[in-house]
Design goal:
Strand order of the largest sheet of chain A: 1-2-6-5
Shape of chain A: rod-shaped
GO molecular function (chain B): cytokine activity; interleukin-7 receptor binding
InterPro entries (chain B): TSLP (IPR029189), TSLP_sf (IPR038329)
CATH topology of chain B: Growth Hormone, Chain: A
Transmembrane segments (chain B): 20-40
Distance between the termini of chain A: 162 Å
Number of strands of chain B: 0
Radius of gyration of chain A: 64 Å
Organism (chain B): Odobenus rosmarus divergens (Pacific walrus)
Largest sheet of chain A: 4 strands, antiparallel
CATH architecture of chain B: Up-down Bundle
CATH class of the domain at 133-229 in chain A: Mainly Beta
CATH superfamily of chain B: Thymic stromal lymphopoietin
Strand content of chain B: under 5%
Structural class of chain B: mainly alpha
Largest interface: A-B, 15 and 17 residues
Distance between the termini of chain B: 71 Å
Radius of gyration of chain B: 22 Å
Strand content of chain A: 15-25%
CATH topology of the domain at 133-229 in chain A: Immunoglobulin-like
Oligomer: heterodimer
Helix content of chain A: 10-25%
CATH class of chain B: Mainly Alpha
Order of helices and strands of chain B: HHHHHH
Keywords (chain B): Membrane, Transmembrane, Transmembrane helix
Number of strands of chain A: 20
Shape of chain B: elongated
């Protein structure tokens, strides 16, 4: 009997349990998934009002009749076992400091004191941060970028200090074409080259817990900020740089023009000096401060000068004494002619004169080659008499511009004249007792050599 | 012969008393070993996170701006289990001059953290009724209690460094 009773009891119990799980309601109708109608979601906001936290719950189905429904939270509370939610329209919320923030809590949905549905959750895992605010965009011309800054209230809180932010921006005309950037700080830089020029953009930001200890959902979007990108200047240069470029261009152009204009006259002679013209060089060498000096190689210009025929080099003393005794006299016309012809021809008269090179050296910076034609520019002193040869009354050595003639040395080789040569030129007096400088005996080639040497000495 | 019998009775009695006494002490020590929880199997990483995010804020709020270094805190723990043992003892066991730490926020959080992350830890049963009565009397945090909390802060810092 005992065993039989026990068996009947167990069967009865099983029947009751099975009938209850199948959802068989008292009204006879099948109401499967009755709990799903009262499914709900919650989120928490910590330190939303000073030190008080906020927990908000709502049914997923907005059509649920929540007239007599209540929400209750139990567990993970400070000094209390359970707390009851307040109701505002279709939302249930509770604002309290008594959340322990460690461990799980249970939220019960009650109807008339009876528990309809429950859900276990952890308050630190359903945190919804507050929306960021004060978003600003500043254009930095020097860096060609946009600095985006925003603020969040969580930087001043004790809990949920570390957040991840998401910045979204788009061009206003491009709908649903949002660009997203994730960052952990409250500053972002957007490069100008990555944005369209002269376009209007809008930008917004939201936050989520950093998932280190506190986890949860995205906050609401911040208020949208609008900004316009500047136009592209299209290669427009900086005014200062432009001015410098123009000035440099014109300076270079001016230098090129001047170089072309002055090339032949000024620049080329310096860069590529031409070989000196001997005639002109000698004329320059024979230039003297006196303006009335008439330098010429024309024999006719020496008509007024005493021309002594140079025969050879004798002792200095003899020449000096001779020169002291000699007096200036005019040259005979025939002698002049001969001299002039002699300058052109190779023959020399036999008459010759001696002139001490010392005297020449005293008056001139170089010595004269014996028996050859030498052009002496420095022989002429201001007191010399080349244009005024006929007027000279001086004693002493005659200083001649122009030719110094040597007898019969046209075919002989002569050494290069040296300023320190002690040799003298001999002068043979003519029949009239006047020394005559005979015509040139050197060849044109020897004269050319002499002149080049003379120029070298100079 | 009578005195010899008396002399033998006295040492025997003494030995008997001492043996009973030492036996009880031994038994009590065994019981203590059994009842003291071993924190070796706890999840120290999760306990450390709960300390850094929640318990630390409550400890700082209790000290109310007074730095723990102002007290001479010659306290030290060797390893994480030793740190948790000492933290539990100071937090939940009253001492002379400070008997109400167990109901503070940081104590409740410590109890919750140890209960969740230490398998087999039953936790301390904090009597809320008694807590309400004591709140009526409004025991103010004494200097002795702040000294105890300063010890706790040092132990928790040591624990977070070595865990």
């Amino acid at each position: 009997m005992t065993i039989l009773g026990t068996a009947f009891g167990m069967v009865f119990y099983l029947l009751q349990a099975v009938s209850g799980e199948s959802g068989y309601a008292q009204n006879g109708e099948f109401e499967d998934a009755e709990l799903d109608d009262y499914s709900f979601s919650c989120y928490s906001q910590l330190e939303v009002d000073g030190t008080q936290h906020l927990l908000t719950c709502a049914f997923d189905d907005p059509d649920v009749n929540s007239t007599n429904l209540e929400f209750e939270i139990c567990g993970a509370l400070l000094n209390v076992k359970c707390l009851t939610f307040d109701k505002l329209q279709e939302m249930y919320f509770i604002k309290t400091k008594k959340f322990l923030l460690i461990g799980d809590s249970e939220i019960h949905v009650k109807l008339g004191g009876k528990n309809i549905t429950s859900k276990k959750l952890n308050i630190v895992e359903i945190v919804k941060p507050e929306a960021p605010f004060d978003i600003r965009v500043i254009y930095r011309k020097g860096a060609n970028d946009f600095l985006v800054t925003f603020n969040t209230s969580h930087s001043q809180k004790k809990y949920v200090k570390e957040l991840m932010h998401e910045v979204a921006y788009r061009q206003e005309k491009n709908e649903n074409d949002w660009m997203h950037v994730n960052l952990s700080s409250t500053k972002l830089t957007l490069l100008q080259r990555k944005l369209q020029p002269d376009a209007m953009y809008e930008i917004k930001v939201r936050s989520i817990p950093n998932a280190n200890y506190f986890q949860g959902f995205w906050s609401e979007w911040s208020p949208t900020f609008h900004f316009r990108t500047p136009e592209i200047t299209g290669g427009k240069m900086d005014p200062v740089l432009l001015t410098i470029s123009i000035l440099s261009f014109f300076s270079v152009a001016l230098m090129v023009i001047l170089a072309c204009a002055l090339w032949k006259k000024r620049i080329k002679p310096i860069v590529w000096p031409s070989l000196p013209d001997h005639k002109k060089t000698l004329e320059q060498l024979c230039k003297k401060p006196k303006k009335n000096l008439n330098v010429s190689f024309n024999p006719e210009s020496f008509l007024d000068c005493q021309i002594h025929k140079v025969d050879g080099i004798q002792a200095r003393d003899e020449a000096e004494s001779f020169l002291q005794d000699t007096s200036p006299s005019q040259l005979d016309e025939s002698e002049k002619r001969r001299l002039g012809g002699g300058m052109q021809g190779p023959t020399w008269p036999s008459e010759h004169a001696a002139i001490t090179p010392k005297a020449f050296r005293g008056d001139s910076p170089f010595g004269c080659l014996a028996g050859s034609i030498s052009m002496c520019e420095a022989l002429v002193q201001p007191s010399s008499r080349s244009p005024d040869c006929g007027e000279s009354g001086k004693n002493g050595p005659h200083v001649y511009q122009g030719l110094l003639l040597g007898p019969g040395t046209t075919n002989s080789t002569v050494p290069t004249p040296s300023p320190f040569q002690s040799g003298i030129l001999t002068l043979n007096p003519t029949a009239q007792g006047q020394p005559v400088l005979t015509s040139l005996g050197s060849s044109q080639e020897e004269a050319y050599v002499t002149m080049s040497s003379f120029y070298q000495n100079q | 012969m009578y005195s010899m019998h008396e002399h033998r009775t006295l040492p025997d009695a003494l030995l008997f008393v001492l043996s009973v006494f030492f036996r009880k002490i031994f038994i009590l020590q065994l019981v203590g070993l059994v009842l003291t929880y071993n924190f070796t199997d706890c999840d120290f990483e999760k306990i450390r996170k709960k300390y850094q995010e929640v318990i630390y804020q409550a400890l700082e709020k209790y000290m109310n701006g007074i730095k723990s270094t102002e007290f001479n805190n010659p306290i030290y723990c060797e390893d994480p289990p030793d740190c948790l043992t000492k933290i539990e003892r100071i937090t939940f066991y009253p001492t002379h001059g400070c008997t109400s730490l167990a109901k503070e926020i940081f104590a409740v959080g410590t109890n919750a953290a140890l209960t969740l992350q230490c398998p087999g830890y039953s936790g301390m049963q904090i009597n809320n009724t008694q807590a309400k009565k004591k709140r009526k009397k409004r025991e103010v945090a004494t200097n002795k209690c702040r000294k105890q909390v300063a010890y706790l802060i040092e132990l928790w810092r040591r624990f977070s460094r070595i865990s």
